[in-house]
Amino acid sequence: MIRIVEHRSALPNGPIIALHIRRDANAEPSIFARVAIEVFGRSPAPDAFPERLPVADAFLQALSYAERQGIAVMWIDDPLGLFPPQKRPAPDARLGG
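^ that's the sequence the OP posted. Answer follows.
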């Protein structure tokens, strides 16, 4: 099971998957996410998730990737509160359930 961390100060040492959520009024969609694999704030695989994604899709892709790769922590980097817990899809949504 992936542990979701909301605050940078709670991040462990070691690899994490980060979901960076941002707003750009000139982009479509205007609220988007980028997924990154990070170790101590640096990305060892900067091209693993190259595109902006709709936030819910990025969340589910990040969860799936973390499970496959054995990454135990996901950081939700959401400084504007655009993707609160109650808006997040259930993890089984990626299974069609």
